[in-house]
Amino acid sequence: MGLSEINNEDLDNEKLSLEKLFQCSDDFDSVVFNSGAGSGKTYALVKSLKYVITHNRENLKIHNQKIACITYTNVAAENIRQQLGASDVVEVSTIHERIWHIICDQKTALLSLHIEKLKREIAYIDNQLQNKSDFEKYRALDEESKEQFFEIMYANKREYNKAYNLRAAEFKTAMPQEIHLQFAGLISNVSKFKGLVDKLFKKKRYLDCMNNIESGKKGYREVTYDAMYNRDRLDKMRISHDTLLEYGYELVEKYPRMRQLIIDRYPYILIDEYQDTADIVVKIMNLLDKYAKKIHHELFIAYFGDSVQNIYDTGVGKKLNDLHSDLSSVSKIYNRRSYTEVINVANKVRNDEIIQKSIYSDSSGGSVKLYYGNAKNVNNFINKCAKKWKAQEETPLHCLFATNQMVAEYSGFLKVYEVFKNAEVYQGIGYKQLNSELLSHDTIHLGKAQALLYRLMKLYTEVREPKQPLRRIFTTNEYRNISFANLKALVSLLQSLDGNTLDDLLSVIFNQYSISEDKTYKFIIEKIFDMDEETSYDSVLKYFLTSLYKSWDEAIETKVVISDLLNIKVEELLNWFHYINRDEKKSICYHTFHSTKGLEYENVVIILGKDFGVDRGLFEIYFKSYGKADAGNSLKYEKGRNILYVAVTRTIKNLRILYIDNLEEIKNNIENVFGKAYEFSDNITDESF
DNA sequence: AGCAATTCTCTTTTT
DNA sequence: GAGAATTGCT
Fold first, then answer.
1. A184: Cβ under 7 Å from strand B?
2. Which of A184, A215, A246 is the last residue before a domain boundary?
3. Does A235 reside within a domain?
4. A121 in the same domain as A67
C-alpha cells in the first residue's frame, strides 16, 4: 500500500513546528514558515488560522477586528475558505482584493496619487523624447514644426491606428502626403516613427486627463480598479494590478493614519505562497510591522511558502528577508506527498539546507529514472511509460512540458494554437495575450473569437451527450413551450450538424439556418453566435476577421485571410475545448510545468531540454552550475532549479524524465541529481525499460 | 562592404 | 517589445 504508517516520534516532531508557529502568533512575533513541496503548508496555515480564532475570537469581535488571510489566486482563496469553514473573524482574499477593499474609500488621496502618477509618466515621456537616440531627428525640429507634425498626425489618428500592423512599406503609403513631404526624415524608419507618434499621443491623453480631473469633469472624479484588464488606462482613470499595489504602498507610506487604520483592523495577517507575491506587498507589510513596533501596537504577520518554488519573475522569492527584516523562522522537514525515492531526488534538485524526509515509515516503493534521447523519441517514451504503469482514466499518466506549444501539440490541437499565434492581433506586443485568451481555464478570459468557438463546441458536445442532451441549453421556461415530438426532432437536427473542418460545420449550420422554419433552432444559433448584425455565415466570418485581423475589412478577402482558421478540423477544436475545461477523461494528460503548481500526480513524465523557450540554455546552465559554490548567485541557475523543482515534486510515486538535448557536457551533474542516465532508443524493449 | 531598416522569433502565470 | 536574422540601400 505505502504512505499510510506514521510513527509517533515523527508526528510529535511535526506538531512541534506547528506549536512554534502558534507561539509566535501568541507573542505577536512575525514569522516566516518555510518548507518544501508536499509538506502541507496550506494545512499549517489553516491550522494557524484556527488556532488564532479559537483563542482570540471574542476579543477580536469586541474590537471589531479581523484576521486577514491573503492568497495569490482566487482558486487558492476558495480552497482555504473550504478548508477553514465559515468564520466571522477571518477575511480570506487575494492581495489585490484586500488592498482595493482597504483603499477604495480614500477617494481624495487616490485622486492625488493618480495626478502624481500622470505627472511622472509625462515626465518620463518627455525625458525619452529628449534623450533617446531614436528621436534625434524629431529633436532637431523647431517648436513650430514639432507642433505641426503633431497636428497632422492627430488629425489622422484613425488612419494611423488602422495601418499600425501593416508591413513597413504599406504603412508608409497609408500615412498622409504631408508627412512624406514635410517630415520625410521622421518616417524613413517606421518603427522609430511609431515609437514617436505613440509617445506624443500618450502624452496628449495624459494631459487631457489631468485637465479633466482639474475641472472636475464627470468620470474624472475617482480612480477605479478593474481586475479584468491587465494594463493601466491612466487616462481613463482605470488602474490595473501593479498600479493598485503601487497606490496601496504609497498610501501606507505617506499617511500614518492609513497604517493605523490597517493595523487597528487587522492585528493578524497571514500570507499564503509568499514567494509569489510582489516585492511591493512585502514592503507594505514591513512598513506596517515597523510602525506597529514603534507605537507598541500588537501585530502578527506570518508568511507561508518556499522561496525555491518561486517560478514567476514578479514574485519576491528569496528576497523576503531583505525586504522584511527581523522575521522569526519556522521550518518543517516532513513530506506528506511522495515516496522516498522521489523525495530524495527532489532534495538533490533544490540542493539547499531544506532536506525533506517522508513522515511515513512505509514510504519506499517509488521510482525515478532519467533517460536521454531526442525529440522524435518523445511519443514512444510517453507510450512506454503509460504501458508500464497501466495508465487509464482513473489513474492517468501526467506529462509535463516546458511550453504551451508542446502541450497543444500532444493534446491534439496544435493547428488551433498556431492559427491564433499567427493572427494579426497577437503579433508584436499582443503576443503575451495569446496564452491567456486561448488557453485560460477560466473562460471569462477567452478572447472574442475564442469565446465564440468555445460556445460552438459547447453546443456541439452537449447535443451529443447521451443523457438529456438539451438540459443545459435551455432554461426550463424555454422547454415548456415545445412539444416532446418537436424537441426530439430538434435534437436530431442539432446532432446532424457536423463536418470535417470548422468551415464545413459553419456551412451546415447556416445552410440549415436559412432554410429552417424552426424558431427554436434559430434561437439557439442566434444565441451561440451572438452577432450584432443579422446572423449569417458571412457575418460570422466577418466577426472572426475583425477580432483577429483588425486592419482587414474588405469582405471579399475574408475567406482568404482567415482560411487557416476555417480549415481547422472540428476534432482539433474539440481537443482544445476539452483542454480548456480540464476535462481530463483521458489516460494521458498534458500540462506545462508552471500550470501544475500545487497539484500532485501518482505517475509523472517530464520532457526536458536545454532551453526554456527564449531563455536559451536555462536548464543546461542549471546542470552546469549545479553544486558549484557560487551557483546560488546565478539568476539563471535559480530560475532553472525552481522550475525543475516544482515539476519534479508533483510526483507521488513514479517519475520518468526524458532529456532531449545533448547531455555530454552535463552528464556528470545530471547523474548527481537523477542517478544513472539511460539512453533511450525507439527499439528499447519493454523489459529493459 | 558597412550601415540602416525591416522582419522574424520567441516562456511561464496570476491579479 | 527585445534581440537576432535578413534584406535593402548607398
1. no
2. A215
3. no
4. no
